[in-house]
Batch of 3 targets.
Target 1
Amino acid sequence: MRITISGPPGSGKTTACSKLSERLGLESVVFGKIFRQLAAEKNLSLGELGAIAEKDPSIDKMIDSRILEIARENEDIILESRLSAYMCARNGIPAFKVYLNASPEVRMSRIGVREGETLEEARAKTVDRQRSEAKRYKMYYDIDIEDLSVYDLVVDTDTLDPDQVVERIIEGVSGSN
């Protein structure tokens, strides 16, 4: 089974992806790591690379074409990226599409802890990153990232621990078969 996991920064995507991969014995691919690696290779922050990507569509196109390539080549895989659900849906690739969400307060707190930043630093960087991503996705793909209609399951992770999130996903996948 092909599963996509999407959601805003700090919603728990990467953790859920890792734990779900362990539970189901499926390979997982985290596309945010590719963007982070690219930023590191260029000695840029995520925000700086995002600003460049607003002017250079080749950055997003490279990552998104890789999503499609991996999705087409693997029937049993977990894909974690902001656009994986949209890419699969638009290209007729069957997948169970999951969206994880959390309140801004919870997300910013998680990001601050993860990145070793204050809440204010995390908020400033994340708001800028989200604005850049929303702009690029609309500009390059005509995707409104706020439109959740493409998803099979939406999970609010505010009060759930990672194992509970994975349980909800597994229940959703099982109910879709």
Target 2
Amino acid sequence: MDEMQGLKLIDLGTEVSYIEIDTAQVPYTFSVKLDDRTFTFCIKYNDQGGFFTADLSITATGEQLVFGDIIRYGRPLFNSVEDDRFPLPVIIPLCLTGDDISEITWDNFGKLVQLYLFERSA
């Protein structure tokens, strides 16, 4: 299965890439190549808190960069602890269909809400 998908947005006229999430497999681990490096993601669900989390490591070395980062709608993943080991694109959970969504749920994550990749501004 290809974890990276492309979505053509008619309104914007640009292609936006995203990391495909399959909530039926949660908790699960997968690898994604972002720019020149491959990263391993582990997506989990916290039953007590009612939210999804992401772990991030560098696939080649196994170095754990983040453990248990809460996936919040509209907020970049791993934003508070970034350095040059992190993925170059900014990863933001969003819904680009115009639906009124303010939080990530079992019903919308991986369907309406995807982990979109945006170019990092310098």
Target 3
Amino acid sequence: MATIKPSYGISRIDQPEKKNHGFYVRITHRGRTTQKFFPDKASGGKGKAQKLAREYRDKVFARLPKARREAAAQRRKRIKQSGVIGVTHVVSKSTAGTTYEYWQAAWVERGSRKTAKFSIARYGEKKALDMAKRAKRRNG
């Protein structure tokens, strides 16, 4: 089986106002979600709840198709940072399967979200980023 991060698919839930503490397992594949909650108290403590959650997650993970398990085990690509809130790097795939990248500026204008996209293929990495930052400053 592919090696996955220890926390993959597992979240810690702490809601003191509802006296709700435990680990929540959620794995989605092809629109179908498998989920289960492991409360600390009913499981015999925090450590045991975490152990039960990992065992359950591993059982669900083992039933996934090989390609899905391998994809989950891979490291995520580092996302390019712009240093400006509202300016993001986007990698999109067209319906024809072509991949394209752009820098996008986003802001709110009269209550609705607006965006401007600047193609890296057309302008180059630096110029597209500078244009997105300028658009953000000008509008947002």
